[in-house]
């Protein structure tokens, strides 16, 4: 059996950007394959009584996160801009991921969306931005229309339900078998476990 | 000027236990001195609308934390038991820290309290437990009475106000100058900065 890790990400999540940009290289070093799993934090946060990002609800936590992201992106040689508004609405982008079966295109599209959002500061709910991201993943512009397909909407809802059932409460999260790891800070440990199984 | 790092801890905090057990060795390797700063998360959490530990308020986050602590303590060769009830009431213990001026005794007492709580599963609000912790730090049992001193109570309240003013919203936190780091996961980065200044 191929050793694998599940990467659960939400497009609004700043720390998911960090993991999206490094997980494939890290996995390749460990001989592990990555399953890219979009989901929505909104319904999970709502079930916790939150109607916004915790970084907006709790200002001290938010101020810290932006500074922490500045430090981490600088250390890693990543550009970083703060999206306005934050959090961005990643619903259409997440649905589009569900339309992309092929692994390299799926990963490339996800990275393109994160770069649009956190490098270029673009609105990832904007159709033209999404079309550009599809193009970067060698996917045709008419892919965009599929984010309105009933089965795609249902597939993303199912992803979010699965995330919650697996115990996921934030992003990024990583699953190796049933073992859950939360946060870009745990990616290396999760990958190590995936490589050992 | 001596290079230094401020370690802000709360006795109820599981991840503070991890940092308390390693910060002095790490600091010694870097030629950095550690300032041990107790504070209370209760008033800070209350200002965020929480009347309990977020690990109790948000069950998925709590389940994850206990598993994460199991993994981390196993990796580090630390014993770990889950205190009952959680969170423990660390008010008297934190006040006692404020009575201890000498650095080695202060650090030794803090480590003894964390060990009582998270290794031996004892109630750290219990006077006999605290007397045993004082003893482990070569401090006399009558030190305990000082946790009722007006000036000690005020000093701990001031610590908590200072923590909040510095932007601290959780524990452990580390300050190097005005640069804030949150979580045992950031201790190495904070120490690196302290060593460079």
From TrEMBL, chains A, B:
GO BP field: glutathione metabolic process; naphthalene catabolic process
Gene3D superfamilies on file: Glutaredoxin
EC number: 5.99.1.4
Reaction(s) this enzyme catalyzes, per UniProt: 2-hydroxychromene-2-carboxylate = (3E)-4-(2-hydroxyphenyl)-2-oxobut-3-enoate
Isomerase among keywords: yes
Gene Ontology MF, one: glutathione transferase activity
Class in the EC hierarchy, top level: isomerase
The keyword Isomerase is assigned to this record: yes
Domain called DSBA-like thioredoxin: residue spans: 5-189
Alphabetized InterPro entries for the sequence: DSBA-like_thioredoxin_dom (IPR001853), GST_Kappa/NadH (IPR051924), HCCAis_GSTk (IPR014440), NahD-like (IPR044087), Thioredoxin-like_sf (IPR036249)
Active site: 13 (nucleophile)
Domain of life, source organism: Bacteria
Alphabetic keyword roster: Isomerase
Alphabetical list of PANTHER family matching this protein: GLUTATHIONE S-TRANSFERASE KAPPA, GLUTATHIONE S-TRANSFERASE KAPPA 1
Protein family (similarity comment): Belongs to the GST superfamily. NadH family.
Protein name: 2-hydroxychromene-2-carboxylate isomerase
Native species: Ruegeria denitrificans
């Amino acid at each position: 059996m191929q050793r694998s890790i599940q990467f659960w990400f939400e497009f609004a999540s700043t720390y998911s950007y960090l993991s999206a940009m490094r997980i494939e290289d890290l996995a390749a070093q460990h001989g592990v394959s990555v399953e890219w799993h979009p989901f929505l934090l909104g319904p999970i946060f709502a079930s916790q009584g939150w109607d916004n990002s915790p970084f907006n609800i709790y200002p001290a936590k938010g101020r810290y996160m932006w500074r922490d992201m500045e430090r981490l992106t600088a250390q890693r040689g990543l550009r970083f801009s703060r999206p306005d508004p934050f959090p961005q609405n990643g619903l259409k982008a997440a649905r589009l991921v569900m339309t992309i079966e092929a692994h390299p295109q799926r990963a490339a599209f996800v990275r393109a969306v994160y770069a649009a959002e956190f490098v270029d500061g673009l609105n990832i709910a904007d159709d033209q931005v999404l079309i550009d991201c599809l193009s970067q993943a060698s996917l045709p512009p008419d892919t965009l229309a599929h984010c309105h397909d009933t089965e795609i909407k249902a597939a993303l809802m199912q992803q979010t339900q699965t995330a919650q059932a697996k115990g996921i409460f934030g992003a990024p999260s990583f699953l190796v078998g049933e073992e859950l790891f939360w946060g870009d800070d745990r990616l290396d440990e999760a990958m190590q476990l995936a490589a050992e199984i």
